[in-house]
Amino acid sequence: MDDIDPDHVALPPDQSPEVRRLCTELFEKLSEYLQGELAMTSEDYRLLEHMNRITKDKYENMTEVAKQVGTSLHQLNDKYRNLKPYLEQIDQLDAAVTDLENTAYQLDAYSKKLEARFKSLEKK
């Protein structure tokens, strides 16, 4: 706002110069106050605009990361589906090896019994 010219303030002609001076000072201070308020509001809006831009950029980045994570998850699921038959075969082989190992322990125990029996018969 432009400064108010005290000569353009309409006062009755019978007002004293002191009232005219105080009135001029009032209008000048009011003008300064309103300019300050407008400047502060303008700065608030600039700050909000800046914060909104930063937030928008951050959410765009987060969206991109989420898309990449989704794509990676889909690829991992596909790989798991492709590997699942092999993993099942591995589980079956593991079970077969465990059974074979148990059978080998039983055979070992049986052969030790036979050996002991053979030695006892040999001594007689």
What would your notes on this structure say?
This protein is an all-alpha fold. It has one helix at 17-123. The model has no long low-confidence stretch (mean pLDDT 90).
Give the topology, please.
Layout: H1 17-123
Concise synopsis of the structure shown:
The chain is mainly alpha-helical.
- Domain module tally: 1
Query: Helix tally?
Result: 1
Name the helicity range: over 70%
Q: What integer value in Å does the Rg equal? A: 47 Å
β-sheet strand percentage: under 5%
Q: What value does the average pLDDT take?
A: 90
* Mass-distribution shape: rod-shaped
Between the first and last Cα atoms, what is the distance in angstroms?
129 Å
Biggest sheet descriptor: none
Global structural class: mainly alpha
Topology as a string of helices (H) and strands (E): H
Total number of beta strands? 0
Which stretches of 5+ consecutive residues score pLDDT under 50? none
Keywords:
mainly alpha, Biogenesis of lysosome-related organelles complex 1 subunit 2-like, BLOC1_su2
